[in-house]
Amino acid sequence: xxxxxxxxxxxxxxxxxxxxxxxxxxxxxxxxxxxxxxxxxxxxxxxxxxxxxxxxxxxxxxxxxxxxxxxxxxxxxxxxxxxxxxxxxxxxxxxxxxxxxxxxxxxxxxxxxxxxxxxxxxxxxxxxxxxxxxxxxxxxxxxxxxxxxxxxxxxxxxxxxxxxxxxxxxxxxxxxxxxxxxxxxxxxxxxxxxxxxxxxxxxxxxxxxxxxxxxxxxxxxxxxxxxxxxxxxxxxxxxxxxxxxxxxxxxxxxxxxxxxxxxxxxxxxxxxxxxxxxxxxxxxxxxxxxxxxxxxxxxxxxxxxxxxxxxxxxxxxxxxxxxxxxxxxxxxxxxxxxxxxxxxxxxxxxxxxxxxxxxxxxxxxxxxxxxxxxxxxxxxxxxxxxxxxxxxxxxxxxxxxxxxxxxxxxxxxxxxxxxxxxxxxxxxxxxxxxxxxxxxxxxxxxxxxxxxxxxxxxxxxxxxxxxxxxxxxxxxxxxxxxxxxxxxxxxxxxxxxxxxxxxxxxxxxxxxxxxxxxxxxx
Length: 522
Known about the structure:
Layout: E1 8-10, E2 12-14, E3 17-19, E4 23-28, E5 35-41, H1 44-62, H2 66-82, H3 84-95, H4 99-102, H5 105-121, H6 123-127, E6 129-132, E7 141-149, E8 152-156, H7 164-176, E9 179-183, H8 189-202, E10 210-212, H9 217-225, E11 232-236, H10 239-249, E12 253-257, E13 262-266, H11 272-284, E14 294-300, H12 304-316, H13 336-352, E15 355-358, E16 362-363, E17 366-367, E18 370-373, E19 390-396, H14 399-406, E20 411-412, E21 414-418, H15 422-431, E22 436-439, E23 455-456, E24 459-460, H16 465-470, E25 473-481, H17 498-512
Parallel strand pairs: 1-5, 8-9, 8-11, 9-10, 11-12, 13-14, 13-21, 14-19, 18-19, 21-22
Antiparallel strand pairs: 2-3, 4-5, 6-7, 7-25, 12-24, 15-18, 16-17, 20-23
């Protein structure tokens, strides 16, 4: 057990200054009894102050260079790594993530900042263009198309990855030269407070560039999302919350990674041991509280029972225990209300005809790792996001039925296909409605170097450092027109001192080895 008896107290960060809130959020300590922190809760008025500060910062940010912003991002990465132990302790406590998983969060987040730094340096190369007129009457047109910061980005971060996902929003926003208003989950705001302190300590940003406004969504959520000063909203959360934000937001760019219900389709020719291991980890990692979690296992009817047995055997090896013990694989869910929601989905599935192979019991916020078999095709758990530690196994008779089940419902974020037949893998991947399909592995979004995101109720646009930057810039075309009828005026005419041109020609001629007896004067 980590020794961290001192409770943290965190403030708002607006316009380069720390402020008290009108209220506080008490953050539970999921590793021990009690609370880990009290965090200031912003009022609607303070949210407005943050928006004003972010808007006022835009002019200064537009004057920054990509190289300067890249240096910011690299300095932030260094500072983040130097405080890795603080982040790890907080993630274990407020998110309930085992230390074996939480310990990797600071290093992966630092790498995301460094990827963003590289993207910042390549902004002109990746997004800049040079164009010439190509239609009659426009032959003399040329244009420089250059990327510009879009303005202010509202970052709405989730509780399940309070560091990595927040960085995946902030890093591309800074790389593109935008100001930021950060609204973290009220369940895990302490990690975001520490990240804000890291950024403020590492670099001297223009005032108002980063604003940290934790608070209750019912009090400040609509005030932020519905404000016309917001230009892009980057959000990770539930489909219901995302739909509400989209309705409030108006004409802004949206980068939303929302609910998931990933199917893992297992064909008879697959390596069943590998498939069972991947599906178990995909279902149970962090209690299934991941948008990319394997929520339903679709096994061919000829291997259904074998897959169920192997998943059950693998589940038994997962260790439940002290979150600060390196051997612990599994802990509580974020709160008791969420555990009850998972319990209801499982109970409804059992009432519909599914069998509980192992697990299926709740104790407060803890829900046992659970395996269901023979789940009926009309059970709600196959079509709703469970966000819990449940491997729900159902069967299919042929490829067409597998695709039909996989595509049922309106969530389409991730999927997996397990087979040793390359043609089948590609054929099924093409037909499954999902933002990402992984072959012979559980879904994973990595560091953000590959775009990811959902279709339908699972989101809009794509996340990832490069992909997010596309929604955080705007393009300006600077058009030049030159008359084709009078070519002598296409280039500016300069008058140079004759001795300068005389000397220049002499030097060029000497370099070429030609004999020049007298300077050439123009």
